[in-house]
Amino acid sequence: MTTHGYEEGRLDLPFVGICTFGKYPYVADWDAIDADVAVLGAPFDFGCQWRSGARMGPRGIREASTLFSFGHAGAYDFEDDIVYLPADKTRIVDIGDADIVHTDTMKSHANIEAGVRKILAAGAIPVVMGGDHSINIPCINAFSDQEPVHLVQVDAHLDFVDERHGVRYGHGNPMRRAAEKDYVTGLSQIGIRNVSSTARDGYEDARQRGSDILSVRQFRRLGVEAVLERIPANVRYYLTVDIDAFDPSIASGTGTPSHGGFYYYEVLELIDGLCKRGNIVGMDLVEVAPDYDPTTSTSTLAAQLMMNTIGRMLHHR
User: Which fold has domain 21-316?
Assistant: First the structure.
């Protein structure tokens, strides 16, 4: 029998084998999901307004994630004195990608939504790899029969455009679409900065609908603990992370890079605080476009953040 990471089995180094997320088991049958967390790829980037390429994000993140395939030992964090993702207590599966129909946004979004609904029906937490940020729309749609959620967005852009030239489901629209749902109780929009895809009236509309908007500079002035205090406690969170929330110096592989962004530990500490403050019940990470980063640093950042987020979600729940 092949045993991952044990002395009596294969060594199974990160560069060996098939690139599922974190080298966790692949489940092709979406009616047979038995896990705490299920990872789904959403390789859709028809919503882009500038550079495309995020359709390759799931592949890039999966390959990068094999670096963090920790095996039976899990991931020991000496600062927290916690072993995250121990094999004997960790049930994570990769269910592959939603089918994308080229040029057909609505069909592609429907296929993504179907995948998230299958994960939720199995009692697992959906973790979705984009794709551009429009894939958040079907992800949020899939929560229509779930308990309410508070949406926490980490992003350079507000993404609160209602409609532009008839476009309502591009990557500038997802937070507006989410705010329209009666089961989305509010939005915390963090990292917003500089030239944005949303005009002033979009910011005013977002605030009127209850959004709390913070830039990177405001986040740093307040500090992580003060920012967490602004987010409702003891509720269910849906977390959406756009990789362009991070500074292009560490995340150049994205369609709309914006200087002045976050660094790794700022976002990890925010997410760690969220996991202690409430329950993250769904997540997407979007806009990784590997072809713009030949160093693969962006994909590695995305994989590392996802691994550490999942570890904290499972540990603190």
Answer: Arginase; Chain A (3.40.800)
